Amino acid sequence: MKLMIASDIHGAAGYCRALLDAFDRERADRLLLLGDILYHGPRNDLPDEYAPKQVLAMLNERRDKIFCVRGNCDTEVDQMVLTFPILADYSVFPAADRLVYATHGHVFNTSHLPPLCPGDILLHGHTHIPACEDCGGFMYLCHDIDGTPMCGVLPFRATMENAHLHLGYRQMTIGTGAQATLVRGHEFHYSDVDDSSCGNLALLGISKECRQLTAKGTAAATPIYRYKNLVAGYTHWYWAENGFPFFNLI
C-alpha cells in the first residue's frame, strides 16, 4: 500500500488542491492527514486562499481514501462537517516489521516520544517544518542516559537532569572554495550530552568541532563529533534540501 502523508492544511484551499493533485499523480492508495485541517488557529496568520468550506468539500469527496488524527486546532465542530473521522489522538499501524505511530505533534513529538521500539517510526506535523529525523539517535549512541545503558558507541553520558529546551535553526559550511556548500537544519532537544569525564577525546580517536552558526550568523555551542566513520550531533539537517554533502565530513 502506498501512503501519502500531509499535515496542517489549516483551511488553505490552494494547498489542499495541490495536495490532492499530487495524490492522484502519485497514485497513492490512502491519504494520512496529521491534523489541523480546517481552522487556521489564533496564533497563525490566514494562509493563502483560506477557504475552509472548499477544503472540506474537496476532502469529503475522498472520504473513502482518508484516515486522520486530531490536531490541536481540530474540534467537534469540524467533525460535524467532515464525513471521515478526525478526532482520534493517534493511529498505530504496522509497516513490515515495525510500527508507525501517527499523531499531530502537539503532545507527542521528537522531544516527547510515545512508547516506541527501536526502528519504529513516529509521524507528526504541528511544527510546519519538513524534517526527517532519527529520534533520540545521538543519545542512544552514548554510554548511558542518566545511568540507563545505551549503545555505548560514544563514551559520553547523556542526561535529562535539569532539562531545558535547546531550540533554533542551524547552518554550517562544508567544504571550501568552489566546493563549499551551505547546509541548514535545526536543533530541538531537552537533553544534554557530557563529554567532560572522557578526558582527552583525541586520545580516544574522537574529534569535537563547534562550527555551526545560528540563523543570525552567530556561533552556536552545539558540537559535532567525529569517530571513525561516524558523524554525530544534535542538529537535524534538512537532507532533502542539502543533498548529501555530509559525506565530506567523514
Structure in a nutshell:
The chain is elongated and about 65 Å long. Helix 1 packs parallel to helix 2.
Task: Lay out the secondary structure.
Elements lengths: L2 E4 L6 H14 L3 E4 L18 H9 L5 E3 L7 H6 L8 E6 L2 E6 L17 E3 L13 H4 L3 E2 L2 E2 L7 E3 L6 E9 L6 E9 L2 E3 L11 E4 L3 E2 L9 E4 L2 E4 L2 E2 L1 H4 L8
Parallel strand pairs: 1-2, 2-3, 5-6, 7-9
Antiparallel strand pairs: 4-5, 7-8, 9-12, 10-11, 10-14, 11-17, 13-15, 15-16
Helix pairs in contact: 1-2
**Mean pLDDT, as a whole number?**
87
β content, as a range? Answer: 25-35%
Radius of gyration over all CA atoms, rounded: 21 Å
What is the CA–CA distance across the termini? 36 Å
Spatial order of the strands forming the largest sheet: 8-7-9-12
Structural class: alpha/beta
Number of helical regions: 5
Quaternary state of this entry equals single chain
Number of strands: 17
Helix content: 10-25%
The 3D shape can be described as elongated
Main sheet specs: 4 strands, mixed
The ordered string of helix (H) and strand (E) elements is EHEHEHEEEHEEEEEEEEEEEH
Describe the fold and architecture.
With 250 residues, the chain is of the alpha/beta class. The chain contains five helices and 17 strands. Strands 8-7-9-12 form a four-stranded mixed sheet, with no helix packed on it. It has a four-stranded antiparallel sheet with strand order 14-10-11-17. A hairpin with a 2-residue loop joins strand 7 and strand 8 (148-149). Helix 1 (13-26) packs parallel to helix 2. It is elongated, with a radius of gyration of 21 Å. It starts with a strand and ends in an 8-residue tail after the last helix. The mean pLDDT is 87.
